[in-house]
Amino acid sequence: MREIHPNVRAALGMTRELRHRIAEMRERSNRVVARRPSPSGLVIPEVDATGRLLDLYLAPGTCARFDNAELAADIMAAITESAEDARRQYQIAMNSTDNLPRPLAEVMREWRAEKGSDQQVPNFGKAEE
Q1: Of 5, 20, 34, 6, which is closest to residue 120 (Cα–Cα)?
Q2: pTM value?
Q3: Is 106 helix (H, G, I), strand (E, B) or coil?
Q4: What b/e sequence results for 9-45 when a residue is b if at least 16 CB atoms lie within 10 Å of its CB, and e otherwise?
Q5: Contact yes or no for 75/38 (Cβ under 8 A)
Q6: What pLDDT score was predicted for residue 35?
Q7: Which ranges of 3-128 would DSSP assign to H, the alpha helix?
Q8: DSSP class of residue 61?
Q9: How far apart are alpha carbons 13 and 18 in whole angstroms?
């Protein structure tokens, strides 16, 4: 059986690392949820990072307290504010310098500069799976 070329092994390792990074970004994005109360404080929606309404809490007696137009305006105000908050949280989570991984190009440049005949393919700081 022929041996796989080191550059091919490195490319496979980079592919694996990119899959891990994408999965981490999705998980970080999925954790973003905003719950901002309405101006009356009687409506609390739950909105995710994409602006999708996940849940809606109406305090007891809310529907009896407002007419249809006022209730709709209160709900929409709460959803709009929650969506804006979720977008802010998303921007912070995705652009935080604490979450930035080491650039793949940098890892590969170092690996190629140090490459010897028996050098291992870079593992990007993680154990091989």
Answers
A1: 6
A2: 0.69
A3: helix
A4: ebeebbeebeeeeeeeeeeeeeebebebbbebebbbb
A5: yes
A6: 96
A7: 6-30, 62-65, 68-95, 104-114
A8: T
A9: 9
Handedness of CA 33, 36, 41, 43 (dihedral sign): negative
pLDDT tens readout for residues 4-40:
887 787 788 788 888 988 998 899 899 999 999 999 9
pLDDT tens digit string along 55-105?
A: 999 999 999 999 999 999 999 999 999 999 999 999 998 888 877 777 878
40 vs 17: CA distance, rounded Å:
48
Residue closest to 41 by CA, chosen among 66, 58, 55: 58
Output the pLDDT for position 126: 57
Retrieve residue 120's tokens: 């291992």
Query: From CA 127, how far away is CA 129, in angstroms rounded?
Result: 6
CB 45, CB 79: distance < 8 Å: yes
